Amino acid sequence: MTGAWLALAVALAGGAGAALRHLVDQAVPKGKPIFPWGLFVVNLTGSFVLGLLIGLALGDPVHTILATGLLGGYTTFSSASLDTVKLLGERRFGAALANGAGVLVAGVACAVGGIALGAALVA
Fold this sequence. Notes:
By secondary structure, this protein is mostly helical. The model has no long low-confidence stretch (mean pLDDT 93). It is built from five helices and no strands.
């Protein structure tokens, strides 16, 4: 696949990932008091699936389209950061810590789990 066609495929997959992120975010209840559970779920599932792709050792261009495109559009560090800042602004320090550190720590754990599962499936 040539550079231009690969870039187009990544862009289309990124758009699909962003749409999927919106659907998941809207489908997950926010809870009371409001907590950004939807984006929390998005970032953890995205980390897991990206780890799974790494573990499966898919070759280019499939890996590039799925990892950079689809999952790049699906996951969102910037929105998770903004949600944490909003929680801090509301003086909800525990929720801000849970969101900020939780996405980071649980995201890494999900990625490790995905890599391990992918590697086990290939073996």
